[in-house]
Amino acid sequence: MPPQYFDNVEGLAHRDLRFETELFGHRYSFKSDKGIFSSHELDPGSRILIETIGRLDLGKEILDLGCGAGPIGLILASLGASRHVTLSDVNQRCLALSLENARHMGLAERTTIVESDVYDHIDSCFDAIVSNPPIRAGKKVTYRIYDEAPLHLRSGGSLYLVVRRKQGAESVESHLRGIFPAVEVLEKEKGYWVIHAKL
Predict the structure, then answer these.
(1) CB burial class (10 A; 0-12, 13-18, 19+) of residue 82?
(2) Does residue 133 carry a pLDDT above 70?
(3) Is 91 helix (H, G, I), strand (E, B) or coil?
């Protein structure tokens, strides 16, 4: 199997890439690279997730799990001056890009970058966890995101996910109902579901 965006591949050549996107009347620019998820654009699922939850009260401490180059977490940070966002990924290239993009956007002081395989190096609890789960990594990885989320959420905290219907959104929603007392689908657009699970 060729290397995936959730792998660390030593010696993989770099390519200086950049993509731009507009959300909530703001223009955002992100440095990117080959070897990461959606390296040339903000993928549709992430866009729908941000559009759905960006203006909600997410609390002050937010975790972007599987951050890639950082667009979800950094845009959420930019939309609330009181927000602090921890961006986490297993891919070191993603973390370097997230750090550079945070500095470029003037968000370095309101963000923390953490290398972690799911929650392995996540020691804090958050008001909200957001994720566009790495479906290609398999259920062993993605269901850890769902199952262990309550251990890393404060009382009343929320998990926000975007999952494509054809990649199991209905099954994910059903699974979450066995973990969280309150689960709802906030949005269904272009085959993507934005799911909210609340403690």
Answers:
(1) exposed
(2) yes
(3) coil
